[in-house]
Amino acid sequence: MSNLYQSQRAMRRMRKQAMDRGVVAILDVGTSKLACLVLRFDGSDRLRDSEGVGPLAGQSSFRVIGAAALRSRGVRFGEITAMQETERAIRTVVQRAQKMARQRVDHVIACFAGARPRSYGLEGGVDLSGHVVKEEDVASALASCEMPDIGPGREVLHAQPVNFALDHRTGLSDPRGQIGKRLSVDMHLLTVEGSVIENLIYCIKRCDLELAGIANSAYVSGVSSLVEDEQELGAACIDMGGGTTGVSVFIKKHMIYADSVRMGGRHVTSDICQCLQVPFDTAERIKTFNGGLVATGMDDREMIAIGGETGDYEHDRRTVSRAELIGIMRPRVEEILEDVRARLDAAGFEYLPGRKIVLTGGGSLIPGLDAVASRILGQHVRLGRPLRVQGLPQSATGAAFSSAVGLCLFAAHPQDEWWDFAVPSERYPATSLRRAVRWFRDNW
Predict the structure, then answer these.
(1) For residue 203, what are the CA distances in angstroms to 71, 82, 92, 212, 379?
(2) Per-residue pLDDT at 395
(3) Which of 1, 5, 26, 31 is nearest to 15 (CA)?
(4) Cα(283)–Cα(269) distance, rounded to whole angstroms?
(5) Which of 82, 213, 401, 424 is deepest in the core (most CB within 10 A)?
(6) Domain named SHS2: which ranges (predicted)?
(7) Which H helix or E strand runs over 113?
C-alpha cells in the first residue's frame, strides 16, 4: 500500500474524532476561491444512521456556524502549484471561519477539482451459501470485483456500489435480508493522480490541520445541486469553476461517471484581458457586470467603459460595445461546452431515462449560458443552486458554493462508508488485482 493509502486509512478515524467533538471544517480548494464552512453536528456519530444507499438531501444533522471565502492563491486547474501561497490562503480562510464560529477547528474535510479524474465500472458476484443475503455475502460480492489497471501514479478516490442484483432481479439498493441464490454488484470507481492528493494533504498538514476526508468537487456539486428526482432518473451536473469544469453523471442516486475539462471561467476572463488589453481584475469586473453570451439588437449601442490608470487620457477613456464583449466570451464558452458534450457522449449519457443537465459553479452565472448550453448539449438544461442547509449565510447560497455545500452533505453521510463490511479472509480472491473493495474496506 502506498503512503496515500495509509493516509486515507487514518482519515476515517479522523472523521470519527471530529464527529465525537461535534465540529468539523469544510474546505473547498478551487482555482478562483477558497471557501471554508464550519459545521456543528447534533450527535456524536451520524455516519450509520441510515441503512443502505439513500438520498443525501434532507438527512443532514448539522448546522453551519462559520463561513468564509477568500481569493485562491497558488492553485491552477484545481491543483496546488505554489505550496506556500496556498498554505497562507488556507490559514487565512480557516481563521476567518473560526472567528465567525467562535470555535477552534482541528479537522478538515476537503474537496478539489483537478487531478484528471477517470471513472471505471466494476462487476462482481458471489453464490450465496444460504438463501438469505447477509453482510458477509455483500462484502464477498464487493471483494470479487476485478480491479482495473488504473495506471502508475494514480489512486482510488471514490468506490461505491451503484446496483445490486439478486438472481434475475436487478436495481436493488440494499439486498440484505432478501432471498436468492446469486448476488451480483456493479461498482463505480473514481481514480485521480496521486501526487495531487499528496500535495493537498501535505499543504493542509502544514496549516496545523488534520485531513478527515477528501472528495471530488464534481461529485459533491452534483449531490448539492441535483434534486432527488434528477438523481434518481438520471442527470448530469456541470460544475463550471475557475480553472476546471467538472462533469458528473448520476442515476439511482449514485454517481456513475465523473470527468473534468481543464478550462473554466478564468479562461474566459483571460480572453477578455488579452483582447481588450486590460488587467486581469478589470477583465473580471467587466465579465461579471457586463458579460453575456446572447447578443440582442441593443448590444451594439450599449457601450462599456473599460477604464484604466495609465495616465493616458485616450487609453483610460476607452469603451467597448457589449456586442464586442459577447463576441470575445462566447467562443471560449462554446469550446468548454463542446468538450463537456464529448465527455457526456463517452459516458453514454444519451441512454439515461432522465437526461437532465444542471449547470452550477461560479462560471454558470454568465447570462445566457443556459441557452447556449441547450443548443450545444441538446438536452434539457437548467441553472442549479445548492440546497439550503441550516445556518448557511445568504452570501454562501449561490452557485459558486455548490461544492462547499455538497461537501457538507458528504461529511454527514459519506456513501463510501455505508458498505464497509468485514470480508471473511477465506473469501478474498487469490489474485492481487481482484481486491477493489479490499481497498474500499481498508481505506474508508
Answers:
(1) 17, 10, 13, 14, 40
(2) 86
(3) 26
(4) 6
(5) 401
(6) 24-225
(7) none
> Could you give phi then psi for residue 246, rounded to 5 degrees?
-85, 145
| Of 50-64, 141-155, 334-348, the least confident | 50-64
> Would you say residue 232 lies in a domain?
no
In a domain, 425, yes or no: yes
User: Can you say whether residue 388 is alpha, beta or left, with left for phi > 0 and alpha for psi between -120 and 50 degrees?
Assistant: beta
CB 347 within 8 A of CB 249: yes
Residue 353: CB atoms within 10 Å: 8
Let me know if 410 is exposed, middle or buried by CB neighbors in 10 A (0-12, 13-18, 19+).
buried
Cell of 356: 437532465
Dihedral (CA of 69, 73, 78, 84) sign:
negative
Give the residue numbers spanning the domain of 167: 118-193+420-443
Question: How many secondary structure helices (H) and strands (E) does the chain include?
Answer: 13, 18
Q: Do residues 57 and 387 make contact, with C-beta atoms less than 8 angstroms apart?
A: yes
pLDDT digits (tens, 9 = 90+) for 243-302: 999 999 999 889 999 999 999 999 999 999 999 888 898 999 999 898 899 988 888 888
- Cell numbers 456539486 correspond to what residue? 221
DSSP reduced 3-state for 429 = coil
Whether residue 380 lies inside any domain: the answer is no
Residue with cell 465579465: 287
Q: 10 Å Cβ neighbour count for 422?
A: 9
Longest Cα separation, the chain: 86
C-alpha cell at 249: 453523471
Domain for residue 435, yes or no?
yes
Tell me the three cell numbers of residue 190: 473514481
In this structure, what C-alpha cell is assigned to residue 83? 505550496
Per the structure, the count of domains in the chain is 1
Is residue 302 within 8 A of residue 322, CB to CB? The reply is yes
User: Residue 146 has what pLDDT?
Assistant: 83
For residue 8, give the nearest of 190, 215, 146 by alpha carbon.
215
pTM of the model: 0.85
Label residue 394 left, alpha or beta by phi (over 0 means left) and psi (-120 to 50 means alpha): alpha
The answer to whether 391 touches 411, Cβ cutoff 8 Å, is: no
Residue 6 confidence (pLDDT): 55
CA angle 370, 373, 374 (to 5 degrees): 85
Please, which residues have CB within 8 angstroms of residue 352's CB and are 6 or more apart in sequence? 233, 234, 235, 249, 251
- For 287, the grid coordinates are 465579465
